[in-house]
Amino acid sequence: MACLVVVARRPDAPHGLDLRAYLVLAGVVVAVRTLFRVLFGGTALGTGPVVLDLPAVPLPDLLSGVTLLGPVTAGSLLAGVYDGLRLAAVLVCVGAANSLADARRLLRAVPGALAEVSTAVVIALTAAPQLLDSVRRVRRARRLRAGGAEGVRALPAVLSPVLADALDRSLALAGAMAVRGYGRTADVPRRARRTSAALLLGGLLGTCWGLVGLLDPTAGAATGLPVLLGGALLAVLGLRLASARVRRTAHRPDPWGAPEWAVVAAGAASAGAMVLAAALDPTGVAPSTTPPAWPEPSPLALAAVLVAALPAVLAPRPGAAPRPRRTSVGAAGTARPAAPAAALRGGAR
Amino acid sequence: MTSASAPAPVLRLDRVSVTYPGAERPVLRDVDLDVPEGELCLVAGPTGSGKSTLLGAACGLVPHLTGGELAGEVLVAGASTRTTPPRDLAHLVGFVGQDPVAGFVTDSVEDELAYAMEQLAVPVPAMRRRVEEVLDLLGVADLRDRPLRTLSGGQAQRVAIGSVLAAGPRVLVLDEPTSALDPGAAEDVLAALVRLVHDLAVTVLVAEHRLERVVQHADRVVLVGRDGRVRAGEPAAMMRDHDGAPPVVELARVAGWDPPPLSVRDARRRAGPLVERLAGRRPAPRPAPGRDDGPPLLRSRGLAVVHGRGSGAVRAVAGVDLDLAAGEVVALMGRNGSGKSSLLWAWQGSGPRSGGDVRVLGDVPELGAAGAGTDAHPCTTAPRGRRPGLRDLLRPARRPVDGPDAEGRRDPGALAPAAARALVGLVPQTPGDLLYLGSVAAECAQADAESGRPPGTCRALLDEVSPGVPDDRHPRDLSEGQRLALVLAVQLAAAPRVVLLDEPTRGLDEGAKRRVGEAVRALAAEGRAVVLATHDVELVAGAADRVVVMAQGRVVADGATAEVVAASPAFAPQTAKVLAPEPWLVPDEVRAALAGEGLPEGDVVRGMS
Questions:
Q1: Partner of B95 for a Cys bridge, out of A62, A179, B452, B594, CB 3.0 to 4.6 A?
Q2: Which of A179, A208, A227 is the last residue in one of the domains?
Q3: B186-203: buried (b, 16+ CB within 10 Å) or exposed (e) per residue?
Q4: Helix (H, G, I), strand (E, B) or coil at B133
Q5: Sheet with B79-80: strands ordered across
Q6: Does residue B53 contact residue B484 with C-beta atoms inside 8 Å?
Q7: Structure-model confidence comparison of residues B386 and B323, the more confident one
Q8: Of A120-129, B21-30, B535-544, which gets the smallest average pLDDT?
Q9: Are residues B339 and B216 in the same domain?
C-alpha cells in the first residue's frame, strides 16, 4: 500500500526516488530473519510438520541454550517470515514517508521558537553535498601535483584545503545571514523568557516519563498516558510562549485543506480499524503459526488495508496546478507537516 | 570632495580606523567618507589594501563578525554600527559577498528572496508584493521556481542581490560582484545595479578590480591605499592619474584627452582626431620569438567530455580538434559553462574524458621513488559507463603506462600523475587546492621532491614569476597574486612544455594582472605552449597570440587575437571598441605607433605628435 501511494504521488525531486533502496533493504530483512530462524534453534519454537531435517549442532557450554541448526518446522519458519515481514513493513513505511515528504518543507512547519534550529538543519543539509564537492575538487587537484602519499598519509593534503574551504564558506554564510536579519528577537521581559524555558523543560521531562511508563508495563499504569499527555501539553504551552519572542513571518506557508484532512482521516481510519480488528478477531490479523495455517484476514482488517491505500487517490498530484493558497496561516509560520507522511502510519500493514 | 548641494549622507564614516587582532598596523586609517543617498560608489585599490574591510565596516560585519578593533564611528542612515549589530541593520544596509552562492540559506529562488523578509517579520501580503517587485527589478522572474544550485554565475549574483534588496535597505554593499562573471553576465548584473540606483535611489557601494566594467557607471570613486588611507572624488578626476586605470583612460593619456572619458561611448566621440593620426598605420606585429611552426606540442582530436550519466548527463566538451604550437599563447574564451575548464582538465589528463584522443610531446622523467605510482585517475581509467565509486576516489585504480606513439607523443590521461604533470601543467581555478603545507619554503621543497628536481628549482622559478615572496609565510596568508605565482612555480618545477591556466586573473588587482601577462609571455618565449581560459578581455588583448572561442562544448572561433576579438561585441577590448574598425587592441600599441614605431602603410605618413 505504501508503494502504491508513493508511486502514485511521488514528487519529481531527488529525495522522491529512493524508495527502491528501502524495498531492497526490506527484502534483505525478511531473508535474514528467516535465515536466523533456521540457524538458531528451530526446535524451541513452533510446531507443525518438519520441513527440513538438519542435524542439531550443540554449542560449547559458554553459549549453552543456543543450538545451531536442528530440524526446521513449518511453524517456526512461518513465524520467522512474519517477524521479518513486520520489520520490513516498518522499513517500507519509513522509506515511503522519506520519499514523499520533503525534509525542508517539514522543517518549515516547526513552531517559531525552533525556527533557528530548523535553519541550522537546512544549512547542514546543503553543506553536506558542498563538502563532498569540495573533497572531489581537492582530490582531483592533488593529481596535478602527483603527491606520492596515498591512503591515510594523503589525508592532510586533502583535509587542509577542504577544511579551510569549509571554514571560509561558513564565515561567508554567517555574514550573509546576519546582514539579512537572522536571529532578530523581539523584546520580551526576562520573566516571560524564564517561564517559557521552565515550561519547555517540564514538558520534555513529562513526555519522556510518560513514554517510558507507556512502553514499560512494570512502571505502573498511573505513569502512562496521563503523564505523557500532561508533558505534551506543557511542551506545547512552552513553545507557544517562546514563539512570541521570535518575530518571523512565513512567505508561503503550506496550505492545509480538504485533501490534507482526507489523507489524515484515511490514515487514522486505517489504524483504528486495524486495532479494532485485532481486538475482535486476533487470528484475522496475526495468523497462527502453531499450527501453521493459511492467513485468513478478517474483512475488517482487509478494509483497513484498503483504506490505507486511499491517499493514492486523495492526495493532490505533485506538480499539478497549485490550489489557491490560503492567505495566512498564523504569523508564527505554523503550517502542518506534509500530509502524505501521516497517511503512511496506516499504510503497508 | 563633497559638493555643497549633495543630499544628506546615508552612509557616513567618521575617522574610522580598523585594526585586526595581531596586526601591527591598522588596515584602515582615519577614514572620513560621506556617501549621499542614491549614489553608486566604486571602491578600488590593490588587493590586501582593506577594500573588503571598508565594505564590512559599512554594513557592521566589521567588527561584529570578524573581530578586530574599530575606532571612530560608522553611521548608516543615522544608526551607529557600534551599538547596533548587523542583524538589526538588515532593513538599512544589505551585503553580498564575493561568493554569492556561499551566502544562500534556502534552496529555491523565491524562498531565498523571501528569507530576509521572513526574518524581519514583514507581513505576508507585503512580502508577496515585494518578492514580485524584486523578481522584476533584477530580471529573474523566469527563475522563480528554480533550485538555487542550478543557477549560472550571473543569475546567482542577481538572486543574491535580490535577496538582500527584498528587505528594503537604503544602502547596498557588494564585494566584487562581476569579477567571476563572463562579460555578458557582468553586463546583466551591472544593468540591474544601475537600475536600482536610478529608479529606487538605493545607495550602492561596490568594490571591484574590473574598473573598466564599473567605473563608467560610478558617481564617485573611493581609492583605498596600501597604507589604509582613503581618497574619494569624481571618477574622472580620480582616474586621471590612477595606476591601473581602465584602458579607455590609458588611451586618453596617450591621446592627451583631459578629463579622461570613462566609457567607450564618450571615448569614441572624441576619437576622431586620434583615428586620423593613426590612419595608414598598423600595430607592430606581436613579438613571438619562441613560436615555431614545427609539429604541435599538443594535439587533440574529437575530444569529448560528458559529466554525469543517464538523463542527468551534461555534454561539457563535444568533439574538440585543436593543436597547440610551441611558443604561442592561446586564450580560451566563452560563456560560463561553455566547457573551457573541462577541456583544460581533459587535456591535462586528470579530468574525465569520454572520447577522443590527446597526445602531448615532451620528456617524461624516469620516475623515482616520489610519486612513482602508476596510478591513473579513476575518471580516466574507469570503464566508460561505470561511475567511479567511493573506493575509486580513495584509492585510484592501477593501469600500466602507455607507450608513446610514432611521433613520440604520449597521452597524459594514460600516464601516472607524476608523468602527466611533466607533460602538461595545469593551474586550476582555485589554486589554493594544491597547497597544504605550512610555509612557502615547505611547498617549494615538496614540489622539488615530487618532480625529481634539485632542491631550489621551485624557489628559483617562484622568484622569476613573482620576486620577494617570503619563505616562512603560510600559503593561505599570501595575496591572491602571490598564491597564484606559487602554484604556477610548483607546476613549472616539473618542466611541462604545455602550461594551462584556468581563470588566472580572478580576484587580482591591476598590477598583479599585468605581472601575470608578463609571466605568460615569458613562458611562451621559452618555447612553451600556454593556454589561458579567461573572461578577461583586456588580458587576452595584451597577452594572447591566438583566441579560441567555445560555446556549448564546441569551438566556434579560432584565429589570431586581433581577428577573433575585434569583431566580437562581447570579447572586444575597450581600445578596439573605441578605434573600431581599425585593428588596435591595447593602448600600448597606439602609443608605440604614435611614437613612430608603427609600420606606415603606403607613402603618406600623416602628422605625428
A1: A179
A2: A179
A3: bebbbebbeebbeeeebb
A4: helix
A5: B28-36, B9-19, B69-76, B79-80
A6: no
A7: B323
A8: A120-129
A9: no
- The answer to whether the CB of B352 falls within 8 A of the CB of B380 is yes
Cross-chain residue pair B432–A150, CB shorter than 8 Å: no
Measured CA to CA, the distance from residue B35 to residue B19 in angstroms comes to 23
Looking at chain B, the whole-number percentage of residues with pLDDT higher than 70 is 89
pLDDT score of B311 more than 90: no
Q: In chain B, which residues have their Cβ closer than 8 Å to the Cβ of A177?
A: 103, 105
DSSP B467: T
A292: helix, coil or strand?
strand
What's the CATH number where B115 sits?
3.40.50.300
Specify whether B362 is located in the same domain as B309.
yes
Considering the domain architecture, whether residues B159 and B258 belong to the same structural domain is answered as no
Q: Supply B206's cell numbers.
A: 561596490
Mean pLDDT for A70-90 is: 75
Same domain, B141 and B83: yes
Residue B440 lies in a domain: no
Verdict on whether the full-model pTM lies above 0.90? no
Closest CA to B317 of B296, B298, B300: B300
Percentage of chain B with pLDDT > 90?
46
**Alpha helices (runs of H) in B167-260, residue ranges in sequence order:** 183-200, 211-214, 235-240, 247-255
Which residue range forms the structural domain that includes residue A237? 188-245
Which range among A2-6, A103-107, A208-212, B108-112 shows the weakest confidence by mean pLDDT? A2-6
Q: Range of B189's domain?
A: 9-244
Residue A282 has pLDDT above 80, yes or no: no
CB pairs under 8 A between A and B: 180
CA distance B266 to chain A (A): 38
**DSSP annotation string for B472-530:** TS-GGGS-HHHHHHHHHHHHHTT--SEEEEESTTTT--HHHHHHHHHHHHHHHHTT-EE
**What pLDDT shows up at residue A339?**
34
Tens-digit pLDDT profile for residues A97-130: 766 666 666 666 666 667 667 777 777 776 777 7
Rounded to whole angstroms, the Cα distance separating B88 from B80 reads: 11
Put simply, the answer to whether B105 touches A123 (Cβ < 8 Å) is yes
**Strand ranges (E), B210-363:** 220-224, 230-233, 281-282, 298-307, 314-324, 329-333, 355-361
Residues of A within 8 A of B436 (CB-CB) are 156-158, 160-161
Range with the lowest mean pLDDT among B237-246, B361-370, B408-417? B361-370
B87–A182: do the CB atoms touch at under 8 Å? Answer: yes
- Confidence band, pLDDT 50/70/90 cuts, at residue A131: confident
CA distance B283 to B598: 6
- On average, the pLDDT of chain A sits at 68
CB contact under 8 A, A140 and B90: no
Question: Domain for residue B438, yes or no?
Answer: no
Residues B516 and B592 in one domain: no
Q: Is residue A207 part of a domain?
A: yes
* Residue of B564, B569, B528 lying closest to B548 (CA atoms): B564
Domain annotation covers residue B564: yes
Mean of pLDDT over chain B = 85
User: Could you give the number of structural domains in chain A?
Assistant: 2
Instruction: Tell me which chain A residues have a C-beta less than 8 angstroms from the C-beta of B94.
Output: 179-180
The verdict on B510 and B592 lying in the same domain is no
Within-domain flag for B467: no
Q: Is the domain of B41 the same as that of B109? A: yes
Q: For residue A104, what pLDDT is reported?
A: 62
Q: Pick the residue from chain A with its C-alpha nearest to B169.
A: A180
Q: What is the dihedral of CA B416, B419, B425, B427, to 10 degrees?
A: 40
| Structural domain count, chain B | 3
Complex ipTM > 0.90? no
Q: Which residues pair with B87 in a beta bridge?
A: none
**How many CA atoms lie less than 13 Å away from B398 in the CB half-sphere?**
5
DSSP E strands: which ranges in chain A? 50-52, 56-58, 67-69, 72-73
Contacts of A175 in chain B (CB under 8 A): 61, 65, 86, 95, 97, 103
